[in-house]
Amino acid sequence: MVFQNITDEQYEELLKNYQYSFKKGDLVKGTIAGYDSEGAIVDIGAKSNAICPEREAKLNKEDNLQDILKLNTEYEFLIIKEEDDEGRLTISYKKVASAYNWKQLEEIKAQDKIIEGTVVQVVKGGILVEVLGIRGFVPSSHLRTKETESIVGSKIELKILSMDAMQNNFILSNRKVYSDTIEEVKKDVFTQLEVGQIVKGEVVRIADFGAFVDIGGVDGLLPLSQISWRWVDHPADILKIGDKIDVEIIGIDTDKQRVSLSLKNLEADPWVEAKGKIQEGAIVKGKITRIKHFGAFVEVYPCVEALLPQAEVIQYQNEHNTILDVGEVIDTVILKFNPDDKRISLSVNLDKK
To answer: Which stretches in the chain have pLDDT values below 50?
Structure first.
């Protein structure tokens, strides 16, 4: 509709009557009306055109904005920022396209299809690939070739091992393409696994609760508590992706295809060693390893910790006019020692002689 001889007052009244409701998080359709220094100008039917910044249009940095968002063509966008001082909404094409691509990848995984990806970078423990504009990780143990330096920029066939769009976690395999299906490979590996068996593995992923270790086609979980006899705050303090380690299988769940692993079981149990070294009533020097609201953990023998109750901590601090800290060495008294249950009752030696 074309309005002729309209006054400013009449135009303002028309704008007030213009019904639209756009807010952050909405999906909208819009037509590319042009381009400026910021990105693409998009008509989404609002009072003023919206802007899709270049960074919110490109899935790949090397892409050309005008090739992705073509003039006079309609696309779907996500509103990521409400109106600025100029009344313009900021929208994203990339986020919508990425969501659709994750959905497509889920279908590909469900059908166990082969997909092509481009190698973009060699990293510790494997390579990064780009598939449908989304970056994924291929562990070196899942590469058919070990000459990773020569394959950057090349395209390789892949199968999806695991994916989680919420966590942006995307793991693929090149080796699986040249073998049986992932399920068959896992079944074959599981028939060869036994509890108590020591196997070679490679660290492929690290989480707060432990590390995932590839033991030949199956990723076993090495829990935080099974990494070392010593207290470990985070797996990354001990391990890094790509590390080759020997681990012991301590649990197998064939139905759920899960394997539990231990690294510390390959070392001597320090509690057993401490049996003949620690005596009840003995005064031993201990190093404070952690301090909590309920007390301090003290290493009284290599890799053997005991809890010094908070009341004892306060008493020691009052008697010695000091504040205990991690790393300090103090004299302690072994009140009770139960190596089988891995428990020690501890007190402090307040004798200043």
So the answer is: 1-3, 18-19, 180, 352-353
Phi, psi of 82 (to 5 degrees): -75, 180
- What 8-state DSSP symbol labels residue 237? G
Is residue 342 located within the same domain as residue 275?
Answer: yes
Q: CB of 96 within 8 A of CB of 90?
A: no
- How many CB atoms within 10 Å of residue 327? 8
Q: Does 140 lie in the same domain as 83?
A: no
* Backbone φ and ψ of 103, nearest 5°: -65, -45
pLDDT at 252: 86
**pLDDT value at residue 13:** 58
Q: Whole-angstrom Cα distance, residue 163 to residue 166?
A: 9
User: How far, in Å, CA of 344 to CA of 334, rounded?
Assistant: 7
Which residue range is the domain that position 229 belongs to? Answer: 185-266
Taking the C-alpha atoms of residue 210 and residue 227, their distance in angstroms, rounded to an integer, is 8
Contact call for residues 322 and 348 (beta carbons, < 8 A): no
Q: Could you tell me the two tokens for 120? A: 């973009």
**pLDDT of res. 7:** 64
**Could you tell me if 278 and 344 lie in one domain?**
yes
127 in any annotated domain: yes
Helical H runs in the chain?
Answer: 8-17, 65-68, 94-110, 182-190, 270-274, 310-320
- Asked if residue 3 is part of any domain, the answer here is no
Q: Single out the residue in 214, 244, 266 at which a domain terminates.
A: 266
Task: Give the DSSP H/E element, type plus range, for residue 218.
Answer: none
CA angle 253–196–272, rounded 5-degree value: 125
Of 220, 241, 266, the one marking the end of a domain is 266
Indicate if 73 and 121 belong to the same structural domain: no
Phi, psi for residue 16 in degrees, rounded to 5: -65, -35
